[in-house]
Design brief:
CATH class of the largest domain: Mainly Beta
Low-confidence stretches: 1-7
Shape: globular
Number of domains: 4
Strand order of the largest sheet: 4-7-2-1-10-12
Radius of gyration: 24 Å
CATH topology of the largest domain: Immunoglobulin-like
Bound molecules: ligand BES, zinc ion
Mean pLDDT: 96
């Protein structure tokens, strides 16, 4: 489809940004940055190419914890006045720059502060190699503004280049075309020709090496991890091909992975051209690679068609979870993807009946995050309820028709933002198409604007878990663990087994299980994380050392939240949680500490 014929979605005002893109909007930036590990600081300047769309003669950018040194307009060497609004929690400040009618570029000189929330500065001890420091950014949802002045709203897209200077022995990488080797001087040039929103801006700097795993795909990691990582992610190119076969060509050139140190607060982050990934998915058996399929899928859902504001987050994540599992199904079969759906459904049930039971409005797909930190409002609902809704539609219209719809949706709205209302209009026009019965069956308004899940929807069913259930029953009836049939179980069967234990578990039974299956010592982060929750709840002390090791090394919030919660729910748990958190906190990224400072207390 050509540019001309593709539809455009009008921008909705983003409650999490001060920017007023309707007045003047950033179209392109040329950054020139220096990364200083001693000062824990990024400094430099950006030349912002802008377009004024009304006559307000002003551009507004977002910043938070940033120092602005100077602002200049076009080629005028004199410094331009600017104003900063009073800081607002989470949101930071509005940087208002008066413009001339003819202004085309604004040059801003700035530097970051050590507390910049997007940045984690790691000491050598916090890396795999232990000899070099490491820096990485996490910009989603609204943290890009803590390391670069920008219009930090997912509805604003721009292209960019960056000159980046780093210490000579380190390699920098960005969401852009990336180097595959270090340069002698530590100076690098990056280019991103496709317009992206600010939350997809990223930078990582470390002692990194590159290995190809396919024609368009490769892995960056520290030398100590690169071999295991290359083995683990060998199927990445196949995933890319499966994704293209479903929903059309991959438009970003290369697709590479960067394996970060374990303090990375997420499982993965879909930075364009370069997914950031936690090392906790490296299991040596390739069993947790659906996370790669997920981040890859964002190359369409999210990075091409982008949620207009964080209230529409389900459009990013719900589509991505659905797409992720279609990719996994294409590579490893239906039984495999149904296991993922079933585990996801358990997560959804857990969110509905536990975490969000007291705030039902947070279980609507369309969120209302005004006045709150979007980072805290982003729950399983967007992911699993979003996915469940799309699967529901797919079941009603058939996979072929649904795939056509999704493919056309990505293609028509590529490089644009999308909000929930507009999506529902498109659904009506392109799929429902006047079919009143179908409209009623889809029942979109209930899914989107009402809490919970509409009645009468069939949950996923993984055949492979039937056999796990049988073993669980045998075990509950007294069969010793060593006699259970667990021979060909993958991580997913083990997770289903471990999640199914809670009811009848006792301390003695935990010992028995641990002896047979060595859960405490498992190197599989997903398995250990569930096991440690049981260990806390049942006061299984042989796992204490492992718990401490896990909490102090792994910074992935998804694992940490249930563990700290389980600790806090114990009679003397508050003290224990605090003591462990005190030890672990120095290894956590700001998005994790902001969660746990509140939850556990500093
Ligand atoms: N884009 C998200 C991560 C994210 C969401 C960061 C919101 C900040 C705010 C990423 O694609 C993601 O969903 N990661 C998941 C993994 C996935 C397999 C569910 C994660 O990190 O756990
Ligand atoms: Zn995602």
């Amino acid at each position: 489809m050509t540019q001309e014929s593709s539809a455009t979605v009008a921008l909705s005002q983003d409650p999490h940004s001060f920017a007023r893109p309707q007045q003047a909007i950033i179209k392109h930036v040329d950054w020139d940055l220096v990364v200083d590990f001693d000062k824990k600081q990024i400094s430099g300047n950006g030349i912002y190419r802008i377009e004024q769309t009304n006559h307000s003669l002003e551009i507004v950018l977002d910043i938070r914890d940033l120092t602005i040194h100077s602002v200049k307009l076009d080629d005028d060497p004199s410094e331009q006045e600017f104003t900063l609004s009073a800081p607002v929690k989470y949101l930071g400040q509005a940087l208002r720059i008066p413009l001339q009618k003819k202004t085309r570029t604004v040059t801003i000189a700035f530097e970051t502060k050590p507390q910049a929330a997007a940045l984690q500065w790691l000491t050598p001890e916090q890396t795999a190699g232990k000899h070099h420091p490491f820096l990485f950014t996490q910009s989603q949802a609204i943290l890009a503004r803590t390391w670069l002045p920008c219009q930090d709203s997912p509805g604003v897209r721009f292209t960019y280049t960056a000159k980046v200077k780093v210490p000579a022995h380190l390699l920098p990488l960005m969401s852009a075309d990336n180097p595959q080797e270090k340069s002698a001087q530590g100076e690098y040039f990056f280019k991103m020709d496709q317009p992206i929103p600010s939350y997809l801006l990223s930078l990582a700097v470390g002692n990194l090496e590159f290995r190809p795993v396919g024609k368009r795909c490769g892995v960056y990691a520290e030398p100590e991890t690169i071999q295991d990582a290359t083995y683990e992610f060998a199927d990445t190119e196949k995933m890319l091909e499966a994704a293209e076969a479903l929903y059309g060509p991959y438009l970003w050139g290369r697709y590479d992975l960067l394996v970060l140190p374990p303090s990375f607060p997420f499982g993965g982050m879909e930075n364009p051209k370069l997914t950031f990934a936690t090392p906790t998915i490296i299991t040596k058996d390739r069993s947790l690679t659906s996370l790669i399929a997920h981040e890859l899928a964002h190359s369409w859902s999210g990075n091409l068609v982008t949620n207009a504001t964080w209230n529409d987050f389900w459009l990013n994540e719900g589509f991505t979870v659905y797409f992720e599992r279609r990719i996994m199904e294409a590579l490893y079969g239906h039984d495999y993807s149904e296991m993922l759906h079933t585990l996801g459904y358990q997560d959804l049930q857990h969110a509905l009946t536990d975490d969000l039971a007291s705030t039902p409005k947070d279980t609507c797909l369309k969120l209302d995050l005004q006045g709150s930190d979007p980072d805290e409002g982003l729950t399983e609902i967007a992911y699993e309820k979003g996915n469940y809704f799309l699967r529901h539609i797919e079941k009603l219209v058939g996979q072929e028709r649904f795939d056509q719809f999704v493919k056309a949706y990505f293609n028509t709205y590529k490089f644009q933002s999308m909000d929930t209302t507009r999506f529902l209009e498109i659904l009506e026009k392109e799929l429902i198409n006047g079919d009143a019965a179908l409209r009623e069956q889809i029942n979109a308004n209930a899914w989107v604007y009402e809490p919970g899940i509409p009645a009468g929807i069939e949950p996923p069913h993984a055949r492979k878990f039937d056999q796990v259930k049988e073993q669980l029953q045998k075990w509950e009836a007294g069969t010793p663990p060593s006699e259970l049939e667990t021979n060909h179980w993958s991580t997913h069967e083990w997770l289903y087994f471990l999640r199914g234990l809670s009811k009848s578990l006792t301390l003695a039974k935990m010992e028995e299980l641990d002896q047979a299956f060595t859960f405490t010592q498992s190197g599989n982060s997903e398995i250990v994380a569930v096991w440690l929750q049981h260990a806390i709840t049942h006061n299984y002390t042989p796992a204490n050392a492992r718990l401490e090791e896990f909490l102090t090394h792994v910074g992935r919030r998804k694992f940490l939240v249930p563990l700290y919660k389980a600790l806090l729910a114990q009679p003397d748990g508050k003290q224990r949680a605090k003591a462990l958190y005190k030890k672990a906190r120095p290894n956590y990224h700001a998005v994790a500490t902001s969660t746990f400072d509140e939850m556990v207390g500093v």
